[in-house]
Amino acid sequence: MIIKIDHIAISTPYIENAIQYFHKLGYATEFLLPQVKNSEIKKPFLSHFSETHNVSLLLKNKCFSIELLDHGQLSETQSFMIPVFESFPYPLNKNEQIVLTSSTQLFRSYIDELDIWAYVKYNLDECFIFNTIVFKTPSIEASFQFWTHFGFKPQELTETYAKLEFKTPFNRYPFYIILTKDKTNCTSKKMYLNSNGFSYMAFITNSDESEKKRLIGNALNVTQTDTIDVNNKRLNIFFVKGPCNEFVEIISLVKPDRTIHENERRNKNNND
């Protein structure tokens, strides 16, 4: 069962600069790890695979947790995922007012510090919020069906856009995806996990085995499962590739083996 959204990932060659930028927006650094072993199951989804990569995790209440990834080289294609930054604290250049949905009017703005485009809503009186991501897609219907497999529920659905909400008891606040019809044909290009910008969303499950079985039963394209160690935690992970260049990571925490733990405790007591 999908329990919660763990994070949304962004590829950047300038992790420390990105950390400083998000700190200004109220995020805090959970960890910054250099030269973390990269998982082999990512290879088909990277234009450049490196044995190690740099990883950082940033946290902020009511917002997506952000995982910053430096794979050593970006792909030539831009990401199709565009963040929505609400209550943005200061004005940006290169603004273009747009309407995403019937209830969402924003500015399309370029953020030099992150080298990405974002949809921005200015409000100096309220706290910065990042709980919505926009995904450009060649097929609203296909992307809509894909995201419902991970707990997103429909709020609005038209021929040109859709809005979905994710909310569970383990995510105290709601999160949203807005699907927009690609009008520039940019999605005809292949997107990678190391495309510049936000590239995929990660979910926590209480069982990677049952989750994988469920997704395969729904005819989704899943990778093999890999076990990795990140920030002193052992995790089982696999990736899901959607029909319109969507990427999802599924994560489950590997519980310590009680027998091994008990033997370690006994050995320590015997040595004492």
Descriptive report:
There is one protein chain. The protein has 272 residues and is α+β, with helices and mostly antiparallel strands. It has one domain: 2,3-Dihydroxybiphenyl 1,2-Dioxygenase, domain 1. The chain is 16% helix and 47% strand. It is built from 4 helices and 17 strands. It has helices at residues 15-24, 140-148, 208-217, 258-271, and strands at 2-11, 28-37, 52-59, 66-70, 81-88, 96-101, 104-111, 116-122, 129-137, 153-157, 161-168, 171-181, 197-205, 221-222, 226-230, 233-241, 247-253. The strands form 2 sheets. Strands 1, 2, 3, 4, 13, 14, 15, 16 and 17 form a 9-stranded mixed β-sheet that branches. A hairpin with a 3-residue loop joins β10 and β11. The radius of gyration is 19 Å and the shape is globular. The termini are far apart.
Layout: helices, strands, pairs:
Blueprint (H helix, E strand, L loop, with lengths): L1 E10 L3 H10 L3 E10 L14 E8 L6 E5 L10 E8 L7 E6 L2 E8 L4 E7 L6 E9 L2 H9 L4 E5 L3 E8 L2 E11 L15 E9 L2 H10 L3 E2 L3 E5 L2 E9 L5 E7 L4 H14 L1
Parallel strand pairs: 1-4, 5-8, 9-12, 13-17
Antiparallel strand pairs: 1-13, 2-3, 3-4, 5-9, 6-7, 7-8, 10-11, 11-12, 14-16, 15-16, 16-17
Name of the level-1 CATH class: Alpha Beta
Can you tell me the residue ranges where pLDDT is under 50 for at least 5 consecutive residues? 258-263
Overall helicity: 10-25%
Query: Secondary-structure element sequence?
Result: EHEEEEEEEEHEEEEHEEEEH
Give the second-level CATH assignment, the architecture.
Roll
Give the N-to-C terminal Cα separation: 43 Å
General form? globular
Strand content: over 45%
Strand count: 17
- Gyration radius from CA atoms, angstroms: 19 Å
Name the quaternary structure.
Answer: single chain
Number of domains: 1
Mean pLDDT: 88
* Major sheet description: 9 strands, mixed
CATH topology title:
2,3-Dihydroxybiphenyl 1,2-Dioxygenase, domain 1
CATH superfamily: 2,3-Dihydroxybiphenyl 1,2-Dioxygenase, domain 1
